[in-house]
User: Fold this.
Amino acid sequence: MTEIEKLKQIADTLQEMVSWVIQFDQAFRELREIREQAMLMPPFEDSASRHRNSQLTETLLSSRQNIMHRQDEVVKFLSSVGLPIEWHVFPAPAIGGQIQVYNIFDAFIAITGDVDPRPNFIHITDLLEKGKLAFRRLLQEYVENPPNPISQKLKTVPHYAAAMFSWLFPTEKQRGVLGWVLIAGLVAIILRFIFGVRLEEVGKLLAKWF
Assistant:
């Protein structure tokens, strides 16, 4: 996958996440209102109300599952561009205790009351919009300064060279011996071609020194 394809995939995921967040929030708020109204007056449910309840619950759970499945990818991107992905819940001053830290998307889709307060719809959509702006900046930088394919390939050379060196000489002792051999070879080249010392003399000097 090319860099431009990766960027396009990130953009699609961010846009999908926005739509899932909207679906989740609408269903969550409407179900909460229905529950609060039922606490104030005896519940009266006809078939249409039951059908609506069922629809909202299905939308809530489906959008929640979609957010859960893709949040790791979104969090990874948002973190890479320096955007906050943690949600902090502070204890009541009168009680004290530890600050609870959550993944902001986990906190948003918490529907059992485990996270209080939850991040609201504005928190999440603002974060995703900032992610989309960061994506546009990256895309613009890529278009204006496309990576050189040759330089990209050359970046991998040191890694493969180091891996091959470690494979050929796996122990520290072997690498130490190789280092002395290279030093001796360099000294021999200097003596022979710079100072004009004969090969026989070079050999004697190396035997004496090393």
Summary: The beta strands are 86-89, 100-103.
